[in-house]
Every structure is written in structure tokens, then in C-alpha cells.
Amino acid sequence: MNDDSQRSDPPSLPARRGLRSSRKPRYLQVADELRDELKRGDHPVGGMLPTEAQLCERFGISRYTAREALRTLEEMGLIARRRGSGTKVRSAEPQVRYNQYVRSIDDLLQYTQATRFQLRHSDRLLADATLAGWLDVRAGTECVLLHGIRYQRRMLKPFCITDVYRRASMQGLPPGFARVEDAMRALIEGELFARVGLVEQSLSAVALDAEQADQLEVEPGTPALRTLRRYFDPKSRILLVAVTLHPGDVFSYITRYERSDVMRGV
């Protein structure tokens, strides 16, 4: 019995109805075509999308490729899939939203795994009183700033501005880099999970200024959630400080608290 998940698609891409020629992976080609159809209203909200078998026949693809295409649309918030019930259309436009459920440091750090960071620029600056307080350094200490945008994986619309600060020192950073900036980027893109022992966090509400709104593709004055996180290593030394801005309508922050002295039998 053949395992459909191991089937490979034909190497060439024949011209089939509804499938555009592209260098993209085939599942993304299919996802793009279906997304265009959803936007045009070919599949009304509340209705059902064609089955995996129907997509395989239409596009000449394997079940695995069809599933990946549908998963892409599901991650965009366009469809909802339920085993045995088919695929229901939820929206005609991608829903850029990120819900973070936090009960531990591991949960908190999953944020960096579930999103994609795009560096816009880096800079060297002298710490003012505020930054010095965040980093526990003297005012005037040379620091490094990485400024970038975060995207939910497979999404093109930005949902978070991120500014990462650190004292201009290699101490505590991954080895093998000539510049602090490069070591910082390696840390936030992959090695932060293994190096953090403590995280301090504060949340506040702000309004986005014109420059911030332009980067997030929203209107100036849009309400936003500002998050300040201080990351420490297991010896309580500061690794870095991250300040993020999320438009209020695309980010939910959910925590769960449990009592340590719960009385049984009450």
C-alpha cells in the first residue's frame, strides 16, 4: 500500500486549469490560486472549499501538496478544517492575528519560534537615562540597537515592530561572530531559547505615531500594545532588552495563573 505522504509530484509543471506557472513551491502556487478565488468570492464565506481529492484532481498534485496548500490558507485565517467535516471558508481576506498563551518562560519564548524577524537596520547609540535603566548600565554607555519587523510565518503583512537593545559587549552572546550586531541577530533568531533563565515583562497601551503606523501599514494614532521585555541569563545577567509594538486588533496576550495552595475537596 503506497503512503500518499511520500509521493512526490511530477518534476515538470504542466499547464492545468487554474494553476499558474511559477518558481514557487507547488503548494504555494495552489494556495495563491485558491486565495485569489476566495477574494473574488468564488467560494463564499460560510461555504465549503473543494475536498483534498478534488484539489488533487484539478491541479494534478499529491494529497500531501493539497494538505500543505490548505494548511497555508488555514494559517492565514481564510479557512477552518475539521476532520470528517471538510474545509469551511471563514474569510475572503487574510486575518493577521497572533494569540500568545503564556504559562512559563518556554511559552513566552515560543513567540520567537512562531514568527519571522526581518532586520531593517542596526545602530550604535549612547544610553540615555531610560535605556540605561533597562540595561542596568551607566548613562552614556555604548549600546547596540537592532530595529526590525516581525511577521507571522507565511504571512506578508507586518504585525509587530521590534527594537532590540544591548550593551556593546560580546559577553553572553553566541561565539564565532566578529560584530556584536551579528551575534545579537543570531541570538534572537535561534539561540535565545537555550540561553534565557529569567524574563521580566511590562505591558502598556500607546498610540502609533506616523512612522510606526507606516511600518505596520495602519493608520496613525492606531491603538497599540507596547511590550518591554528584559531577558536575563541563568546568572541574572542581562542578555538584551526588546521593545515591541503591536496594533491592538491583531495581538492577544493570554496568561493563566494557578494557585500553589489549592485546597482539595472544596
**Proportion of helical residues:** 25-40%
Structure annotation, total helices: 7
Q: What class, by secondary structure content?
A: alpha+beta
> Regions with pLDDT < 50 over 5+ consecutive residues?
1-22, 98-103
Number of strands: 10
Biased composition (Basic residues): 17-26
Protein name: GntR family transcriptional regulator
Pfam family, one: UTRA
Region (Disordered): 1-26
Task: Give the tags.
266 residues; alpha+beta; 10 strands; 29% helix; 30% strand
What does this structure look like?
This protein is an alpha+beta fold. The protein contains seven helices and ten strands. The chain is elongated and about 65 Å long. The protein has helices spanning 26-40, 52-59, 63-75, 105-114, 129-135, 180-195, 210-216, and strands at residues 79-82, 86-89, 98-102, 115-126, 142-152, 160-167, 198-207, 223-232, 238-247, 251-255. Residues 1-26 are annotated as: Disordered. Residues 17-26 have a biased composition (Basic residues).
